[in-house]
Automatic annotation (TrEMBL):
InterPro entries: Aldolase-II_Adducin_sf (IPR051017), Aldolase_II/adducin_N (IPR001303), Aldolase_II/adducin_N_sf (IPR036409). This is Class II aldolase/adducin N-terminal domain-containing protein. NCBIfam families: PRK06208.1. It comes from Fusarium oligoseptatum. Residues 99-281 form the Class II aldolase/adducin N-terminal domain. GO terms for cellular component: cytoskeleton. Gene3D superfamilies: Class II aldolase/adducin N-terminal domain. GO terms for molecular function: actin filament binding.
Amino acid sequence: MLSPATLRTAPLRRLITKHATRTLTTTTPKPRLITAPQKTPSKLTVPRSASFATSAEATAPTPEAEVNTNFAAVATGGILYPGIPKIEDPYQKRQWQLEHMAGAFRVFSRMGFTEGAAGHISVRDPVDPTTFWINPMGVHFGMLKASDMVHINEDGQVIGGNRVAVNAAGFMIHSAIHKARPDVDAACHAHSKFGKAWSTFGKPLDIINQDACIFWNNQSVYSSFGGVVFEDEEGARIAEALGPKNRAVILQNHGLLTAGGTVDEAAYLFSLMERTCEVQLLVESSGLPKQIIGDEEAQYTYKYNADPESLYTEFQPDFEYEVWQSKGELKSGF
């Protein structure tokens, strides 16, 4: 990611303007799975994560990918960089979301965000948005596949997918968030080490580096610890603490929770917030004065780094790595 100082240079501003105003014309080929070297380099090359089709499903419909102007500004070379795939069919979108949900869990496993049976990720169902999908209780994050996810309704009853028990606290928290925030399609919570450590202070993260700028005016603190969440009221209070626009909340004496329009966005925000907590704890332990980034610079960096499509794109290297590691197993559907 580019620093505010670098982004302010005149040549790069011209580059950003040039790429940010560029759009796909009707003659630009749709994003598709690339299976062989292309003889026409002018065509758009799209990572596998931007395509619903896999090598085993070459004939399956491929979603269109919209161009993210912010990320296009830092991805130069004369080739437009695709954003979040646009999938019109809700059943195809459901499968795509569950694949990325499984990938997010495997990333969390690799990063060490597991703690017994604690932790959960939820994704709003595109077929019936009043319901959502969540992970089964007691299954290690690193073993989860798309077909393992559980479909539950707003009453916490299993209505489809993998018919097994889910974490009651997870349902209470995620149900409240999905009800309170129609713009949120995914939420992540885990008992990660540095998030738990920082949460004991009951204060937001300082904006002390470029990565932390993503949480500028984008984080809140839930300052009450009510124990394990078994009541609707506690879930509602956490959702209220998240607020109407924030995508991250620090749960005092508990840990972190992030939200986004895609599971990729929410998962990337969680992993970034966990590392930002680690960095802040290291800085605090030095005992030296901190240099806080000013609001103007923080806002400028936030504008170019924290839009949903940029955050989705930032998560794709980790997602693709997990697909490669599992030899595609994590995408196993119903």
